[in-house]
Amino acid sequence: MALTKPGFAVEAVCPSGHTLARTGAVRHVHSYRAFTPLASFANAITAATPDLVIPADDLAARHLHELYWQQRNNGKAGTQICELIERSLGAPESFETVYARTAFIRIAQEEGIRAPKTKIITDRHELTKWMAQMGFPTVLKANGTSGGVGVKVVNTVEEAEHAFRKLQAPPLIARAIKRALVDQDPTLVWPSLSRCGFVVNAQAFVAGREATSTIACWKGKILASLHFEVLKKTASTGHATVLRSIEHSEMADAAEKIARRFKLSGLHGLDFMLEAHTGNAHLIEINPRTTQVGHLSLGLEHDLPAAMYAALTGKEIQPVPKVTENETIALFPQEWARDPKSEFLQSAYHDVPWEEPELIRSCVRKGKQKTLRPGLAVAFSEDHRLSPMVAQSQSGSVRLNCKAE
């Protein structure tokens, strides 16, 4: 929806019944087939010939990375797909590093970025040594996971050993089958059948507040950025539901260094911890995709879709009007699903897409659903505008009081 405002036309690759199909901003939906995902993406790209591809979740980002390596020696058609992916995501040398938590943190530290000590833990002996050196609490993270699913904060030896075994273990067959059939995501099937476990990392705990940045990049240079402090989350290691817009020089500097080092293009997210007593920003991980706040337009240099449109077309950046002057933003449907009586639904800017009633109905109908299926947006640099109908109360904030059908 935000991409259409500066002038993009948008198509999408997603499973049948995906929420993306509920918005008029998507002019065409291409089928995503879970057991042939790379072919699904390649076919959609061939049919749509887009100027930009935007992965909307980690699975879609991984598909694009894998598609790049698959198509490198596939003649002219393969070259065109590879050029598109590089233009959209950045240098291919970075593709594997963004999933390797320890390697990414090491590179960040090489760039002079403040980041907590992080180490791959292969067995119980290394875990015991880490705990003796670092103490508690400590953070254990599994590679290839997202949304806080593969993250555990532990406070005792017993908790650490239990979490390590759980994070390292191959996925249960029942979970892999459910993910493949219901979510159309077969990525856990092979690890489950082969009993292939996950790489687990230990990371030093930083006491403080979580923060996040989302950035629009072009060939290693940041075009626009948004920085937020996290106020509410779905769970202790879950995704954010309420955020406060902030300006933080250390977060901005870290983002510039990462974009330059990895030669990033497109939309990416960075997660930080703001140290409790100092406010210092510790970079803890990268998201190689757009994040859930990337659509928010907050003025010049803070409008990611407008910045990307300008980069692709060579035109001057023309940001759309700011969505709000309120620094606090409650994401929809996340905060409503977390707590329908949340005070932030009234005090914050509640990010409800009033111009898309079918999308709202779909979100309300799904209610407490916590996992979205894989999605990919493809964008074109041509005019395709909407005439939004915006609804708001006289006080300027809106509260939803509704029941799932």
Q: Cα distance, first to last residue?
A: 25 Å
Radius of gyration: 21 Å
Give helix % range: 25-40%
Task: Count every beta strand, where a strand is a DSSP E run of 2 or more residues.
Answer: 15
What strand order characterises the main sheet?
12-11-8-9-10-13-14
Low-confidence stretches: 370-374, 381-405
> What is the typical, i.e. mean, pLDDT?
86
H-E order? EEHEHHHEHEEHHHEEEEHEEHEHHEHE
Helix-strand makeup class: alpha+beta
Name of the CATH architecture of the largest domain: 2-Layer Sandwich
Number of helices: 13
Share in β-strands: 15-25%
Output the CATH homologous superfamily of the largest domain. ATP-grasp fold, B domain
Largest sheet: 7 strands, mixed
**CATH topology annotation of the largest domain:** D-amino Acid Aminotransferase, Chain A, domain 1
- CATH level-1 class of the largest domain: Alpha Beta
Shape category: globular
Number of domains: 3
Structural features, described:
The protein is of the alpha+beta class and 405 residues long. The protein folds into three domains: 8-90, no CATH class; 117-204, Dna Ligase, domain 1, CATH 3.30.1490; 208-371, D-amino Acid Aminotransferase, Chain A, domain 1, CATH 3.30.470. Helices cover 33% and strands 23% of the residues. It has 13 helices and 15 strands. It has helices at residues 37-48, 58-71, 75-89, 101-110, 124-134, 157-168, 173-182, 189-194, 249-262, 304-313, 334-338, 344-347, 357-366; strands at residues 8-14, 26-31, 52-55, 118-121, 138-142, 151-154, 200-204, 208-218, 221-233, 240-245, 266-275, 281-287, 328-331, 349-351, 376-381. The protein has a seven-stranded mixed sheet with strand order 12-11-8-9-10-13-14. Helix 1 (37-48) crosses helix 2, helix 2 packs antiparallel against helix 3 (75-89) and helix 5 crosses helix 6. The two termini are 25 Å apart. Mean pLDDT is 86; it is low at 370-374 and 381-405.
